[in-house]
Amino acid sequence: MLLDTRFLDTLTVVVACGSIAGAARRQNLTPAAVAQRIHALEQEFGTKLLVRSGKTVKPTENGLAIAQEGLILLKHASSLRALANKDKLHGELRIGSISTALLGLLPDAVAEIARKYAGVSFYFVPGLSTELYRQVEEELVDVAIIVEPRFVLGKSLKWRTVREEPLVLIVHEELPEMDAHDILRSQRFIRYDRMQWGGRQVDNYLKEAGIRPEEWMEMDALDAIAALVSRGLGVALVPDWSPPWQAGLKIRKIPLPPNPFVRKIGIVWKSTSTRAELIRVFAEEVVKQSAASSAPS
């Protein structure tokens, strides 16, 4: 049979995910369909490509070699499709996104692109900034919306800032009015995970202000932090992320004294990407939607 690049793409995703189920979710297929594609490739190449280890799978030596060469072949195939459609936007754009942008910035931007360009399709990969940055480097996604890294980007990567999010103190709406720093010193504190780039800014702010709050919880999910504050379980320092916030939250935002700790949200992509024009259009649309969401009503 002729080699089907879709099947080869599935193999590379299985190897990256380490599981049939994970690859099925990413490709919007059933696990059975993924397994059938792998079996078809094994029949085509006449060799075992994967071995099972509990709920995970690992590539054989031949499977890993084919997956690595497959990535190169798929990139060339993508380039050929781009050349064939250079007069119009066409093809799939793989987008990684942190959760707040996935809900706040992406829907309107994608809807507008879909309205203008019927030949464009999308594949979304939610995740943390650290993970998505790596996926852009390894070309597992074409572009990602993440928190700006605290280090110099790789030479092959491009960056465009979309919005700046100052830290704000969120408290239960019934908490009496008082100075933000007094609140941080007197109330139980729900901390934004220090392992995340945005969480490190919170930690730096507290250290610079000389505040050691009463900590009792730490997590990386901003929407969950807001929900806990809404239930009166503590206060938190969070970036003022793009709307919408959850409906019905019983919280109050308190601005902090002027400080340099601002979470920058932006778009990162590879300068050598064959999706350059589609990425440019995507970036422009995200920036436009961000400006619209930040404009005074």
Describe what this molecule looks like in 3D:
Among the domains are: 1-84, Arc Repressor Mutant, subunit A; 163-263, D-Maltodextrin-Binding Protein, domain 2. The strands form 3 sheets. Strands 3, 4, 5, 6, 9, 10 and 11 form a 7-stranded mixed β-sheet that branches. Strands 1-2 form a two-stranded antiparallel sheet. Helix 1 crosses helix 2 (20-27), helix 1 crosses helix 3 and helix 2 (20-27) crosses helix 3 (31-45). 45% of the residues lie in helices and 24% in strands. The model has no long low-confidence stretch (mean pLDDT 88). With 297 residues, it is an alpha/beta fold. It has helices spanning 5-17, 20-27, 31-45, 61-84, 99-104, 106-116, 129-137, 180-186, 197-209, 222-230, 276-294, and strands spanning 50-53, 56-59, 91-97, 120-126, 143-147, 157-172, 188-192, 214-219, 236-239, 251-255, 262-270. The longest helix has 24 residues, at 61-84. The protein is built from 11 helices and 11 strands. The termini are far apart.
What is the makeup of the main sheet?
Answer: 7 strands, mixed
CATH top level label of the domain at 163-263: Alpha Beta
Name the structural class.
Answer: alpha/beta
Overall strand count: 11
Beta content: 15-25%
CATH architecture designation of the domain at 163-263: 3-Layer(aba) Sandwich
Poorly predicted runs of 5 or more residues: none
